[in-house]
Amino acid sequence: MKPKVSVITVVKNCESTIEASVESVIQQSYQEIEHIVIDGASTDNTVKKIEKYNDWFSKMISEPDEGIYDAMNKGIGLATGAIIGFLNADDEFNGPDIVSDVAGLMTETDCDAVFGDLVYVTPKRPQKVIRYYDSSGFNRNWLTIGAMPAHPTLYVKRDIYERYGGYKTDYRIAADFEFCVRIFGKGKTSFQYLPKVMVRMRTGGVSTKNLWSNWVLNKEMIRACHENDIQTNMLKILLKYPKKVAGILKARIFPTIS
User: Phi/psi class of residue 110: alpha, beta or left (left: φ > 0; alpha: ψ in -120 to 50)?
Assistant: First the structure.
């Protein structure tokens, strides 16, 4: 039997993008998908926009939460799939076979986690690439410079969450990084790289807003490493920026994506 995949969408006040995100899940060729939507009590038209998809969702809740990581943990708690991943309200799958490829690779290799590449796109033109996030070559040493596989492409077996726990809500920006440090650094989670662009992510998230957000992000990355017995410091963390620049340059070579 094919494993059920739980795709969790966390959303709050994203009326302009939520439908595209949901549609990209509906268009997946893989049949064993459980789509869970966690809305943080949106005050715009988000809930109204997605009401027509209620028959598609396995679960959909709209209530106040304590932030994105609290909402993500709620989704994990509701998920019943053998494999769990996230596709948030500003993101879209880059093609109809992404979930099928993830489930196939995980089944074939019996690994604990699968991840691939991501492209950052402009908010109004999801075909225009402004940065390419290449997850190939990931290893434990990446963590010491604040680098990790593209989290929106990360799919893990349910028992990884059962073994290591969910996302720490006392992190403001870097709980996804801390989770990766916990499972790949301190833990010995096995993984496979899927060599394709899995997700298109619109810019404008909390970790990319301004210099202050980046400072908070870097401090939290150092904390995450230290809490999980990975030695690093601010100078090492700053070494991730050349990797980001390389991704921007790669986007200049491949400025659009179909």
Answer: left
Per-residue pLDDT tens for 8-58? Answer: 999 999 999 999 999 999 999 999 999 999 999 999 999 999 999 999 999
Take residue 181 and report the two structure tokens written for it.
Answer: 């440090």
pTM of the complete model beyond 0.90 = yes
Residue 232's CB is within 10 A of a number of other CB atoms, namely: 19
Q: 187 is written with which tokens? A: 């833990």
Residue linked to tokens 């301004």: 210
Neighbour-count burial of 46, counting CB atoms closer than 10 A to its CB (0-12 exposed, 13-18 middle, 19+ buried) = buried
In which residue are the tokens 């070559």 written?
137
Structure tokens that stand for 37 in this block:
């939507």
Q: In sequence order, which ranges of the chain are alpha helices (DSSP H)?
A: 18-26, 46-50, 68-78, 98-109, 158-164, 175-180, 211-227, 234-237, 240-253
User: What topology does CATH give the domain 5-253?
Assistant: Spore Coat Polysaccharide Biosynthesis Protein SpsA; Chain A (3.90.550)
Could you give the 3-state DSSP secondary structure of residue 198? strand
